[in-house]
Design goal:
Glycosyltransferase family 92 protein; 20 strands; Immunoglobulin-like; globular; transmembrane helix; 486 residues; alpha/beta; membrane; seven-stranded mixed beta barrel; Spore Coat Polysaccharide Biosynthesis Protein SpsA, Chain A; transmembrane
Length: 486
């Protein structure tokens, strides 16, 4: 009897070993597939690729499936390096134009990173090469771009002294030999130019070579209404802006799907949509994320040569409740052309606060948007961030970007251009953008501003806006001809 027990134990041991080997084989196959997908990407957007704090991956995938505003480029997304640092997007400096590879820096990669201010970054970096299964170690360094009380915006730089091939990705890991760097998340690279040729200009005052672009991120209350979404796009298109890069994951898929019914020759929008997740608590990290998005937007627009047609010459970052409003000019191009005829200045514009819970102006018209009926503005505290209108034509090489926010910029006078911010003012506990309550609205000095009303009739007669306000577009299916409704 004892021999039978021993035989049974031997058989069980043998089966267990075979099962373990099969499990191990399948495990390594699965891990290899996941690493490939993580590095090269995959069709569609899944929760594995885009999950993060405050981010709804299911909603995003639905938006992109039903929208022509698909992610056409490598999207910027916060990925955790460790508990204190999150990488955002990575840019490979291309030396194929205007420069050649040098032995000192064969390749240089810049990665936008947010970290906690009280923690010093001490990492190593790996550069993943095309057609190579193992990475090459790079040389790590970092630059401080913006420092806040709790968070700091960095650019992590990883360089390689020899040209081993074309880089495709980068990963950072803690400087600890006990940690396997192969498991660190990989950022795909976006190629940018090290220099840009000047735009060809003759009789500069008479050549319309200003092409403004707007990057958009969520409001401090991150839900944007359908009305606000349409008003923002239509108004700024009236101001001469056709290029929009939207960093937002909370836009209704129905809004985007219905707008895609409009013919391209009517909207004339060039819209790129990127999801936006937050590495830390939304309310606490909003300001530093705004800085990261602004830097990402600047890097992406710098990648295009000035000599290429219809590429942005100026860039500004706004939220959905902010509007660039000229005073005496008809559009933003005219303002920039008049203020900077030689196209050589970096400029800033100041925001004015318009509280949505203030009473309508005495001359308000029923049915008009709030941007025309809420006309009293309030002076903002000095610590409120100003708006940088970055002149891309005045940046000759990539390294100049790192110092652009620290240099003195020319102030566009309020009698030429201002940024109108429309928000609810109900928080009486602090003095900030939302730092007024209804009682304080009657006490604080305010002024009447009517410059935006000069555009009211143009907005109301706009084809896209009329179609939106009629409600017909929300009733039509994708198979019906929207052009017949115009």
């Amino acid at each position: 009897m004892r021999k039978y027990y021993q035989l049974i134990l031997v058989l069980i041991s043998f089966i267990s070993i075979v099962t373990l080997l099969i499990y191990r084989h399948e495990y390594y196959r699965l891990r290899y597939v996941l690493e490939v997908l993580n590095f090269f990407g995959k069709p569609g957007l899944s929760e594995i690729e885009f999950c993060g704090p405050g981010f709804n991956a299911t909603m995003l995938s639905e938006i992109l499936r039903n929208s022509s505003m698909e992610v056409r480029e490598t999207p910027p997304l916060f990925q955790q390096i460790d508990e204190n640092f999150y990488s955002y997007s990575s840019f490979l400096r291309s030396y194929q134009k205007y420069e050649t590879l040098t032995p000192s820096y064969a390749h240089s990669i810049d990665t936008i990173v947010i970290g906690k201010t009280n923690v010093h970054p001490a990492f190593r970096c790996n550069i993943w090469l095309e057609n190579e299964s193992k990475p090459k170690a790079g040389r790590f360094s970092n630059r401080v771009i913006v420092e806040h009380i709790n968070f700091t915006l960095y650019v992590f730089q990883c360089t390689m002294n020899k040209d081993f091939g074309k880089p495709k990705g980068i990963s950072f890991y803690v400087n600890d030999y006990n940690i396997n760097p192969i498991h660190a998340p990989i950022n795909r690279l976006i190629q940018v130019n090290t220099k840009r040729k000047p735009r060809q200009m003759s009789n500069i005052k008479f050549v319309n070579n200003i092409v403004p672009a707007i990057c958009v991120l969520p409001n401090q209350v991150p839900i944007v209404s359908r009305d606000s979404f349409i008003e923002f796009l239509v108004f700024h298109q009236m101001m001469g802006v056709n290029h929009f890069t939207i960093y937002d994951s909370m836009i209704s898929e129905d809004v985007i799907r219905r707008l895609n019914l409009l013919p391209a020759d009517i909207t004339q929008w060039n819209i790129q949509f990127f999801p936006l997740n937050y590495p830390f608590i939304f309310s606490k990290s909003y300001d530093i994320v705004r800085n990261a998005v602004e830097l990402d937007c600047l890097f992406r627009h710098f990648r295009y040569d000035k000599e290429e047609a219809d590429k942005a010459s100026h860039m500004v970052l706004l939220s959905w409740d902010e509007f660039l409003v000229p005073r005496v000019h008809n559009n933003i191009k005219s303002v920039l052309g008049d203020f900077d005829p030689m196209r050589s200045l970096q400029t800033i514009a100041y925001p004015l606060l318009f509280c949505l819970n203030q009473p309508d102006d005495d001359s308000a018209v029923i049915g008009y948007p709030d941007i025309f009926n809420k006309r009293h503005y309030y002076n903002l505290p000095e610590n409120i961030p100003i708006k940088h209108i970055i002149n891309l034509d005045a940046i000759s090489k990539f390294d100049d970007i790192f110092n652009i926010f620290s240099k003195k910029m020319q102030e566009i006078p309020l009698n030429m251009l201002a940024v109108h911010k429309y928000t609810e003012c109900r928080d009486s506990k602090k003095y900030s953008l939302s730092g007024y309550n209804e009682t304080q609205l009657q006490v604080f000095p305010h002024k009447l501003e009517g410059a935006i009303t000069q555009f009211s009739q143009e907005l109301l007669s706009n084809k896209v806006y009329r179609l939106y306000k009629s409600g017909q577009i929300w009733e039509r299916s994708s198979s019906e001809n929207v052009r017949e409704m115009l």
